[in-house]
Each structure stands twice: as structure tokens, then as C-alpha cells.
Backbone:
């Protein structure tokens, strides 16, 4: 599975994931498999609105707020691991998805132009009316470079 970190979030992943504010959140946004831009193009998008101008959000599945987000410093491997609970959609329908984007949403009322994309993950799933669970294992690992 290819994963990219958006340029707008470089150096901020652990900060955004670990914020305890009451109104902010991390959200997962599914995108349709058809018409996805290349990773090189997507990583330059600075907001969710910019991504949606170049890709189609799969709105039938809907956005999910991440729960159980943990940020763990791994001194042995010189990295920070960011994880969350698995995500489940019930009775899925709509277009096939080709990717999900994890975003930082600064406030419950934030417009897409204020939502910052953090990571994009390739996911191949065709809704078939059944429940679908996306298993998440460390959605990001940030390492230092020497």
C-alpha cells in the first residue's frame, strides 16, 4: 500500500494527532478509485478543498472521525508511530474507493478549505452492501533523518 505525507503536514503529523482540543479531530475521507491524481500531484494539495478539486470524494461511504488515536515515541527506532482504531462502514454502497486521506480538522465547523490533509493511503474496496472494516496499523511513522 502506498502512503504519502502531504507537504502541508510535514513535520506536523505528531502535533496534529496528539492535540487534545475539544473541537478538533482527525477525519478519514474516502476517494473514488476513478480519477485519482498521482501521488506527486496530490502531495502538493494543502487543503481538503484542493484535493476535492482534483479527485472525487466517495460521499456515500462518508467521512469518519478517527478514534483511539495514539502517538508513541519509539526511541529504539528513532521514530514516532501514530495509530488509531480500525474504521468500519456499515452496509456499504456507492462507487469503488481507491484511496483514503487522513486529515486534521481544526474545528467541528471547519470548511474543507480549512481542513489540512495529512496522509493518503491507497485502498481498493468496492462497496457491496456488506460491512467493511479498514484495519489501521500505524497510519503514519515519522522518522528523523541524520
Residues:
Amino acid at each position: 500500500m502506498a502512503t504519502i505525507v502531504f507537504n502541508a503536514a510535514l513535520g506536523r503529523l505528531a502535533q496534529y494527532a496528539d492535540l487534545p482540543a475539544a473541537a478538533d479531530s482527525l477525519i478519514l475521507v474516502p476517494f473514488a478509485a476513478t480519477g485519482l491524481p498521482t501521488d506527486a500531484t496530490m502531495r502538493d494539495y494543502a487543503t481538503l478543498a484542493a484535493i476535492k478539486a482534483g479527485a472525487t470524494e466517495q460521499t456515500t461511504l462518508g467521512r469518519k472521525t478517527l478514534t483511539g488515536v495514539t502517538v508513541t515515541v519509539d526511541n529504539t527506532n528513532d521514530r514516532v508511530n501514530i495509530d488509531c482504531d480500525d474504521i468500519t462502514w456499515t452496509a456499504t454502497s456507492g462507487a469503488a474507493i481507491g484511496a483514503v486521506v487522513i486529515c486534521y480538522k481544526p474545528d467541528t465547523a471547519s470548511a474543507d478549505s480549512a481542513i489540512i490533509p495529512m496522509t493518503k493511503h491507497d485502498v481498493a474496496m468496492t462497496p457491496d452492501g456488506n460491512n467493511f472494516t479498514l484495519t489501521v496499523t500505524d497510519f503514519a511513522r515519522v522518522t528523523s533523518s541524520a
In short: DSSP finds three helices and ten strands in the chain. The two ends are 26 Å apart (CA to CA).
